[in-house]
Amino acid sequence: MTADTPTEQLESTRLRLRAAWQARKPDLAQRRADLVRLREAFRAAIPAMDVAIRGDFGHRSEHENLVSEAMVTLAEIDQALGNLRRWTRPRRAAVGWRFWPARAEVRPEPVGVVGILAPWNYPVNLALVPLVSAIAAGNHVYLKPSEHTPRTSAWLRELLSSVFPSDRVAVALGGPEVGAAFSALRFDHLLFTGSTAVGRKVMAAAAPNLTPVTLELGGKAPAIVCADFPIELAAARIASGKWFNAGQTCIGVDYVLVDAARRDQLLEALQAQLRARYGDFSSPRDYTRIINDAQYARLSGYLDDARMRGVQVIEPLTAGEDDAARARRANERLFAPALVVDPGADSKVMQEEIFGPILPVLSYDHLDEAIARINTLDRPLALYPFSSNRGDIERILAGTLAGGVTVNDTLLHFGAHGLPFGGIGPSGIGAIHGRFGFDTFSKLLPVFHQRRWTATDLIKPPYRGKIDRLVRWLAK
């Protein structure tokens, strides 16, 4: 594996990036050329990317790699290339009749060097999507990928070094010590994607420098199945949103609320989805493994805690397996999807973000009860209401607040690059994707253009007569 970046080299690299940016800020032609080269190099390197990611996870569906990593990244590059000229233009702003005939504009200006701390669960798209926005906005970038995906991190460094000069984009590799030192650098903007707990540490490290931060975190994203929505269709769409990447998704469904009369129907429909998707689960090709032993043990602890509390745990794909089969799964980090039925609020699966293939299914009697239960937890990164009744959807949206919403499906708002992606409070600060990511990594500079003559020239001491009355009227 590639050696870690010495922490003492981090600041010198940042200074090199900053000096190069200050000497020649990328113009529109440079930004476009950079993105075109990145797209070409990325497309050619997709097979190597697939090998690297599957090596880091032990196994990951190549189709999940293509959908979640390749397609999302290419779509972000295409969105930037198709709109870059429009995004970079000054935006007219009204000045009001009091300042006539002056004019004003808002100019998107690059800020300098953007630091990006990327996570392990989607190690390519969550590194390159913000990088695309930062490059489009005219910045230089210092990227720190996750130490938990070392093969993919090395692949990223090789890819980016083939596209960008080392004083325009640099990559730092290493573990928590490197990450902590990286967070404390004097960046012009810092983006972190990961857990809420680590996000707090990143924000604290950035605070002494007053570095602006964007945090893409997580939380317990709920799905609400209303009484009018077809249960089989809800189960199919929830299954896609939950077990994609073995549940290791920040906007994945964390738990489901369903009307009590149909709870058992939903449990049956979810089990049918699992069997249809993964068969006997002996060696599923399209099911991703858990990233490492520590995460596997954490997830196992959630099920142990539920059983200890007397909560029903359903593992339909591994029912009746012997100890040898369980040991083989653990060795492969092949964690079977599990349903946890009506766990209490004090259960670990309801206290912490699950970030794995365990799905609590909770029943409610009235929709207001479901909304109130969501509001007992921190505001989530995503929310998934299922209903054919527009009134019920509006009640849910008005009664809750989340980072983003997909109605009657899951995950899809992330792929719509015209929508901002970001959380609120413990689930995140700020937004990325498309124009919103471009603006995040820009200074939206207000510029007021005064004319040679303006009406305000008359409004100055000594105030007499009509001007005196005008000033008093304006001050009301």
Summarize the structure.
With 476 residues, the chain is α/β, with parallel strands linked by helices. The model has no long low-confidence stretch (mean pLDDT 94). The strands form three sheets. Strands 10-11-12-9-8-13-14 form a seven-stranded mixed beta sheet, with helices on both faces. Strands 5-4-3-6-7-15 form a six-stranded mixed beta sheet, sandwiched between helices. A three-stranded antiparallel beta sheet has the order 1-2-16.
Can you tell me about this structure?
This protein is α/β, with parallel strands linked by helices and 476 residues long. Helix content is 45%, strand content 15%. It has 18 helices and 16 strands. Helix 2 (28-44) packs antiparallel against helix 4 and helix 9 (231-243) packs across helix 10. The longest helix has 27 residues, at 62-88. It is globular.
Provide the fold topology.
Layout: H1 10-23, H2 28-44, H3 46-57, H4 62-88, E1 91-93, E2 103-110, E3 113-117, H5 125-136, E4 140-144, H6 150-163, E5 169-171, H7 176-183, E6 189-193, H8 196-206, E7 213-216, E8 222-225, H9 231-243, E9 255-259, H10 263-278, H11 293-308, E10 312-314, H12 323-332, E11 338-341, H13 348-351, E12 358-364, H14 367-374, E13 382-386, H15 390-399, E14 404-405, H16 412-415, E15 428-429, H17 434-440, E16 442-449, H18 465-474
Parallel strand pairs: 3-4, 3-6, 4-5, 6-7, 8-9, 8-13, 9-12, 11-12, 13-14
Antiparallel strand pairs: 1-2, 2-16, 7-15, 10-11
Helix pairs in contact: 2-4, 2-6, 3-4, 3-6, 4-5, 5-17, 9-10
